[in-house]
Give the backbone structure.
Amino acid sequence: MLQTTLPAIAAAALQNEQENDEFLAYIKGLDGHNLDAMAHESNNRITAAIDCTECGNCCNKLVINVEPGDDERCAKGLGLTTTQFIKQYIEVSEGGKHFVNTIPCHFLTDKKCTVYEHRFTDCREFPHLHKPGFKERLLGTLLHYGNCPIIYNVVEEMKTKTGFITQPSAPMQI
C-alpha cells in the first residue's frame, strides 16, 4: 500500500533518518546497473499510481532551477517577453544560474501548475528517479524523502528490493 499522506511521510522521514543513513551506506557496495533497473521499475509503477496534482508539495517547498530555454518557453506561454518574464519571476545567481524567485512557486494554484504545458525542465523531470545513477544520487534524493510521496515510496521499496529490509515472513500455518 502506497503512503501518500504528507504528514505521515514527514513523520516517517524524521523517524527513519538513521535507517536512511544506513541504507545510503548499504547501497554503496551494490551494483549500480542493477540498482538503476530496480529503481526505474519501482519509479514507473509508483509514479503511475500517484497523482502529483493532488500534492504539489515540491512546488511549495523546493527551489526550482530554470535551465537555458525554460524561461523563453514559459515567457512565450504567458505572452511575455523573456526579459519581462525574467524580471518578474526569475532570480539570477552571481554565477549566472536562473531559478524561480519565490517559494512556493509563483505558478502553483490549488496544488496545480498554471504553466504546466510550459513548465521548467526541473519540474518536468522531478523527482529524477527515471535517470541513471540511483546510487550516486541517493543522498540528494533523500533530501526530498519527507516531502515527496513518489520518492518516499520508491526509497522504501528499494530498501526491501535490495535486501536492506527483509519482508517479514508469512505466519506459519499450524
